[in-house]
Design goal:
Beta-galactosidase, Chain A, domain 5, 7% helix, 12-stranded antiparallel beta sheet, 9-stranded antiparallel beta sheet, mainly beta, 3 domains, single chain, Nuclear Transport Factor 2, Chain: A
């Protein structure tokens, strides 16, 4: 009887139903709660605020002004509705709400099912193309070509590219993880992978004000499939399937095109210099185009899509990039929601929220005995007494201060713009020809301050979010920073990441694991409809050689270009161009730049100042 009453409320107030939602005109008018469960921590109960949406493209931007607080006991037969939020009012029991609704003391709101526009127009929020397609007069966008096929190999789950090699595996909890990453047969990283994705919402309604999702609950390794050639990845990419076992695929299920692998020309130099004066060391140009190998997957978690790239450069650098896109989550528009976000639809507000991404980097620089130190950039006052008589006063200069981190707690890092520093991991026993320790620098673009008070509510389930970076001694018992239960176990976390740090073990000349938190505060705007674009959302971690080599290893690249004039005194008489240019003029490919043309008539363009 209770659910029949709720069914009536949905039909009368919102023009939709929870079941039997095909009307006499064969029109679908469904409402659903989908998987937008919002956890609340109570003493001995697991409670969920559930928000309803219209079942259409795309449901998260079509909210219904109804929310339920549910007691979700481990025994599903005992699930009950505890409270109701309807028309911006909280009813303390489900019975109170139904009684008020039936006797007229509750103001019955009227919200129509979103209408269908003219067939030539898109629905609000649809990603269907705006225009009809016609090939007449249409010019295609540029594409990249592999003239000679792949320059990388995939054998089983091992990838080799240039001097790089690594092994990849897919886990149901975390998705793809890379292992045994080597450059020129020397190991740099043992394990590199995403640990969890967390989104923290806000808002005036009970559900949104408590919304917190740890997406590991969904099984990140099961959320990648169907990457589209030519859009998600270049058409020439290698597409890899993954096999998973879940309650849906007990014998193993195949997720096609869950990963793509491709070499990519970034369209910019990796390094270059252009010298036009003989006195500066010569008249020359030297450069190398930035070409990388990209290992990509895309997680689709309900409304959000997260593009994750692992990138390998010819100079020995590794970069992780992650980009949020997809649909925003909205709530029904009431004036009070103005404090938490902007209106993005006729009846919807998109509240601000925080995306958090936690990564594990088990770094092994030439072995497992490594050290971590910061190179702090400080300012010191100085003067030269012998210059005072020239009117030169005391001055200030930058100073480099090295700080070795001895224990796990000493190594916790909370980002501070007023204290710039480098983060370096190195091997004390390995040195380059200049007697400097061989190591790698860890650099991030996307550190974020999480702001919530510690150990209150959901924050206690994600203590790693308090820090931008932490360093621990490797332990098999500290395999991951969270669990599939994180969304629901704030009261007593299954994995307590803070305990990884609190034992405060020695980290000097040990097998070190670095844990990095990236994040971004997203304040949605109208242009985030239908999808959030990635133009301002990219976050990244870079691992770059720091005295690891004796010089830039990309100097050995066969794509390096070196240009000099045939005559320094008459530079317009022609050019000497050195490089491995396999593709000269006369190929059957579309007209493209080639070095034959530059060598023929590029002198006056290239060295106009000599």
């Amino acid at each position: 009887m209770e659910y029949a009453s709720l069914h009536d409320v949905m039909r009368q107030s919102f023009g939709a139903t929870l079941y039997n939602c095909i009307d006499g005109n064969n029109t679908k008018r469904c409402a659903n709660m989908y998987k937008l469960f919002v956890p609340v921590v109570y003493a001995k109960h697991r409670m969920l605020w559930v928000q309803f949406y219209y079942e259409m493209e795309f449901y998260t931007i079509h909210p219904i002004d109804l929310q339920l607080l549910m007691d979700v006991d481990i025994d599903s037969t005992k699930w009950t509705i505890k409270k109701v939020w309807y028309d911006h009012k909280l009813y303390h029991t489900y019975e109170d709400f139904i009684k008020s609704y039936n006797n007229g003391t509750a103001t019955k709101r009227r919200q129509s099912f979103p209408g269908t526009r003219n067939k030539l127009q898109r629905r609000y929020g649809s990603v269907r193309p705006q225009h009809t397609f016609s090939s007449k007069g249409m010019k295609r966008p540029p594409v990249q070509l592999e003239f000679d096929g792949h320059r990388y190999t995939v054998k089983g789950q091992t990838v080799r590219y240039s001097k790089w090699s690594f092994h990849w595996v897919n886990s149901i909890k975390k998705g793809p993880t890379l292992f045994d990453i080597k450059f020129d047969e020397e190991r740099i990283v043992y394990e590199l992978g995403l640990q969890d994705i967390v989104v923290l919402y806000t808002g005036d309604s009970p559900a949104m004000s408590r919304a917190a999702f740890a997406d590991g609950l969904t099984g990140l390794g099961s959320k990648s499939a169907g990457l589209v050639p030519g859009v998600d990845c270049p058409g020439h990419a290698t597409f890899l399937n993954v096999t998973i076992t879940t309650e849906e695929f007990q014998a193993g299920g195949i997720l096609p095109n869950a990963i793509c692998l491709f070499e990519h020309n970034l369209g910019r130099p990796l390094r270059r210099h252009y010298s036009t004066i003989e006195a500066e060391g010569g008249v020359f140009y030297g450069g190398l185009v930035a070409t990388v190998l990209i290992f990509r997957t895309i997680y689709v978690i309900n409304n959000y899509d997260y593009i994750l790239d692992y990138m390998f450069y010819e100079n020995g650098a590794i970069e992780i990039q992650i980009y949020p896109t997809g649909y925003v989550l909205t709530t029904f528009q009431h004036p009070s929601e103005r404090h938490y976000g902007f209106k993005v639809g006729g009846k919807s507000t998109a509240p601000m929220h925080l995306h958090l991404f936690h990564f594990k980097l088990d770094i092994d620089i030439l072995g497992r005995e490594n050290r971590y130190e910061t190179l702090d950039i400080e300012v010191e006052q100085f003067d030269y007494p012998n210059l005072n008589d020239q009117g030169i006063d005391d001055s200030y200069r930058y100073k480099l201060a090295r700080h070795l981190k001895n224990t796990e707690l000493e190594a916790t890092y909370k980002f501070n713009f007023s204290l710039p520093k480098y983060h370096v991991v190195y091997n004390e026993k390995a040195k380059n020809i200049y007697a400097e320790h061989r190591g790698y620098r860890i650099q991030a673009n996307g550190f974020v301050n999480q702001l919530l008070p510690e150990d209150i509510g959901f924050e206690s389930a994600i203590p790693w979010s308090r820090y931008q970076m932490t360093v621990t001694k490797q332990k098999d018992t500290e395999e991951s920073s969270g669990s599939a239960h994180t969304t629901f176990d704030a009261g007593k976390p299954v994995v307590d990441f803070q305990s990884f740090l609190d034992d405060d073990e020695n980290i000097v000349d040990e097998d070190l694991v670095f844990w990095l938190t990236l994040g971004t505060h997203h304040i949605p705007k109208a242009e985030d409809i239908p999808n959030t674009a990635m133009t301002s959302s990219a976050l990244s971690i870079q691992l770059t050689p720091f005295n690891f080599f004796n010089e830039d290893p990309s100097m050995e690249s066969t794509e390096s270009v070196y240009i000099t004039p045939k005559s320094v005194f008459e530079p317009k008489n022609g050019l000497n161009i050195q490089g491995n240019f396999a593709h000269k003029a006369g190929s059957c490919f579309p007209k493209m730049f080639n070095f034959d043309q530059l060598e023929k008539d590029g002198s006056s363009i290239f060295f106009p100042y000599s």
